[in-house]
Automatic annotation (TrEMBL):
Protein source organism: Marinoscillum luteum
Source superkingdom: Bacteria
Domain CusB-like beta-barrel per the UniProt entry, residue ranges: 233-305
Transmembrane segments: none
Name assigned to this protein: Efflux RND transporter periplasmic adaptor subunit
Length: 399
């Protein structure tokens, strides 16, 4: 027998193993590809299909705006936020107002008492009482002066006393009106140490700064009233983005406690100054009034700075799994064991900007045709749950 060297043994082993490796390697790769493809497919029986209420449509071209994401608050212009005060101060006698109370123009708000008010009314009535005497004396001295009977000094004294009294009367009338007294009642002898304050316009009480028995000075606000009909959104836009913003652009915004409900506004004013935080104020008029909007509420907003046509799918058709986005397409209806089955495939997409319930999409596989997809527009989440449950049970697709 010939001697067999170590190199000969290696050669013989390699010759025997190579066909086996070749025969095993190719089927394994094909099986993995098939399993991956099957893992993205879902089949429904007729009963499952009826229960799922699947709806089909197409990925369509839509015009979606390019948006600038910002934040801000609900606010009112200065002329719609009224502070209630009393020029001469006093003690709060009575009020029923609470923050949030809705009021109409002319409605009673608060009564304030000040003993000095009695003196003001007394001086006014005394001035009225002296008016007739001083007027008559002035006219008499004027007549005597014209007839050269009375001296000029007497005439001038009578004239000065009459005009000075008239000036005091007008001054006291203005003061009493400013405080809030009805001059006709005062002239009728109705003297009061308290005055009632009424709402200057429709709105709601935003804040109350006092209580019964508390003294409020001339500089103190008793309460604030806001006219909610003039609510607007006040947004903070970084200075670098301001060139993109212009009057008339559409604003979509949502409240912090309800991010899924979008409301609309329109840019009507872009600020001209940059604040310390490097932002510029942008104001937007509301498209519709909402009773649940209150001044000071935080909002998350998007300003539409442009628009372009994109391929878009309904948000309900896009599902998220494993950190990626997918849609389902209808493949076929087939018969198995005399029963109809409906086949669907999950396709990965890239999700772009969203607007009005639609989102821009592009296919992760560029070889596929977007327009040819029979898109599942309703029931995508049901298909996702069915497919992933089937995988966990060890099946490639669900039957």
């Amino acid at each position: 027998m010939k001697n067999i060297t170590f190199n000969h043994l290696i050669y013989i082993a390699w010759a025997l193993l190579t066909p086996l490796l070749i025969s095993c390697s190719s089927p394994v790769n094909e099986t993995e590809d098939e399993e991956h493809a099957e893992g993205n497919k879902v089949e429904l029986t007729q009963a499952q299909y009826d229960l799922a209420d699947i709806q089909l449509g197409k990925i369509e071209q839509r015009t979606i705006g390019s948006e600038l994401r910002v934040s801000g608050i609900i606010d009112v212009p200065p002329q719609s936020n009224v502070s209630i005060n009393l020029p001469y101060g006093g003690f709060v006698k009575y009020t029923e107002m609470l923050p949030g109370t809705r009021v109409k123009k002319g409605q009673f708000l608060v009564s304030v008492e000040n003993p000095q008010f009695i003196q003001f009314q007394q001086e006014y009535l005394e001035g009225l009482a002296n008016r007739e005497y001083l007027k008559a004396d002035f006219e008499r001295q004027s007549s005597l002066y014209d007839e050269k009977v009375a001296s000029g000094k007497s005439f001038q004294q009578a004239k000065s006393a009459y005009l000075s009294n008239e000036a005091r009367i007008k001054s006291m009338e203005a003061r009493l009106k400013l405080i809030g007294f009805d001059l006709r009642k005062v002239q009728a002898g109705e003297i009061s140490s308290s005055v009632s304050i009424y709402s200057p316009e429709n709105g709601s009480v935003r804040e109350v700064f006092t209580n019964v028995g508390k003294y409020v000075g001339p500089q103190d606000a008793i309460m604030n009233i806001t006219n909610s009909e003039d609510l607007h959104v006040e947004l903070s836009v970084f200075e670098d983005d301001i060139p993109l913003v212009a009057k008339g652009q559409r604003i979509r915004f949502s409240l912090a406690n309800n991010l899924n409900t979008w409301r609309e506004a329109q840019v009507f004013l872009v600020g001209s100054g940059v604040r310390e935080d490097r932002t510029v104020t942008v104001h937007g008029h509301l498209k519709e009034e909402s009773a649940d909007l209150l001044p000071g509420m935080y909002v998350s907003a998007r300003i539409e700075t442009g628009s372009h046509a994109v391929w878009a799918a309904p948000d309900e058709a896009i599902v998220r799994f494993g950190g990626r986005h997918f849609v389902f397409t209808f493949l076929e209806k087939k018969m198995e064991n005399g029963q109809p089955h409906y086949a669907y495939e999950m396709i990965e997409v890239n999700k772009g900007i969203s607007e009005d319930g639609f989102s821009e999409v592009s296919l992760a596989d560029p070889t596929l045709d977007l327009s040819a997809i029979d898109l599942v527009t309703q029931g995508a989440f049901t298909l996702l749950a069915k497919g992933k449950n089937s995988e966990e049970d060890g099946h490639g697709h669900g039957h």
